[in-house]
Amino acid sequence: MTLFRFVFSLICAAYLSFTNVNSLLAQVTAPSTFTTAIQVQGEDLGTEFDDWNASGISVVDADPADNPGFLDIANIQVANDNDFLYIRATFYSNESSPNLFLAFDTDQDSATGFDTLQAGLLGSEFGYQNDFAFHQAAGTFNTNIALTGGPFGNGGALLFPFWDQDGPEKEWAIPRDAMITFPAPGVPTFPNNSFDFVVYTDEGLGDVSQVISYTFAEAPPGQPGDFDSDLDVDGADFLEWQREFGNTLGASDLTDWQTNYGPGALSAVSAVPEPSSVFLAGLGLASLAMHRRRV
Ligand SMILES: [Ca+2]
Ligand SMILES: [Ca+2]
Ligand SMILES: [Ca+2]
Ligand SMILES: [Ca+2]
Q1: Which fold has domain 2-215?
Q2: pLDDT tens, 249-286?
Q3: 203-253, pLDDT tens digit by residue?
């Protein structure tokens, strides 16, 4: 992290000077996609991007190969759940770079925030350098005002691969609960449901995605039996029922689970007992629990 901060300070001193920004920029609106299927970090080796490939989330921006010899942005995808904004970027090149950035114009007003692209097109209120979050303001690339929230408590994102690990793509899980600690007690990094963002680098000629508008998708209404609110009724919900039985869930909830248990869930979750045995096990636990209560 010390090295990272050092590199970061160097970059802040020499922020963007694109030679080809104006010819590249356009504005696109990404479809709003709610999904709990995207995971960032912790997947099995070699499967890290299978979640995106299986998700059906469309590519919102297909950037050309136009930054030869340097980090060269290709395709961008975006989605969200209740906790995170998920972004995937692929590259024509295979090298990691400390100079990979995201910029968020969270009020969709190019006149407020930092003029990230020096073209009057995106006024960013906060940004990321790889996984590192920082606040931005008019005329100031990094205000050094602290951020809070997210899995690291400082607004930082989950990123895979890590910022210094090579690979032809990266995925971010960007916390939705981060706060900028100014003015006290702070404002959310995402104060609105809609925002604009770009993925960019100042390496080489510079490379930037289109300005992508996104609106957070709401979670679909829950289905009875979906106790963990991940849009399916499967073995994980049964485990949740076991944990919460006698607390927030009762016997009638198990009936909901049984009624809505989907055959499709079997393929999605491995190591889940077949429905009949799971249900029988559930009944056994339920009666055991009720027996205990009577004693
Ligand atoms: Ca993943
Ligand atoms: Ca490119
Ligand atoms: Ca703005
Ligand atoms: Ca579920």
Answers
A1: Immunoglobulin-like (2.60.40)
A2: 999 999 999 999 975 544 444 444 454 555 545 555 54
A3: 999 999 999 999 999 988 778 999 888 878 999 999 999 999 998 899 999
What pLDDT sits at residue 76? 98
151 Cα: distance to centroid of ligand 1 (angstroms): 16
Cα 231 to middle of ligand 3, angstroms: 34
CA of 239 to the centre of ligand 4 (A): 10
pLDDT score at 47: 96
Q: Are 166 and 96 in contact (CB under 8 A)?
A: yes
List the domain boundaries for the chain: 2-215, 235-294
Residue pair 85/174 in contact by the 8 Å Cβ criterion: yes
- Which ligand neighbours the alpha carbon of 37 most closely? 1
Q: Which amino acid is at 133?
A: A
Helices 235-244, 275-294: inter-axial angle, 10-degree rounding: 0
Q: What angle do CA 167, 214, 176 make, to 5 degrees?
A: 75
Query: Could you say which ligand is closest to the alpha carbon of residue 18?
Result: 2
Percent share of the chain, pLDDT over 90: 68
Q: What is the pTM of this model?
A: 0.75
Structure tokens, 258: 């049984």
Whole-number Å distance, alpha carbon 232 to ligand 1 midpoint, is: 19
Distance 82 CA to ligand 3 centre (A): 23
204 vs 68: CA distance, rounded Å: 8
Residue 228, pLDDT score: 84
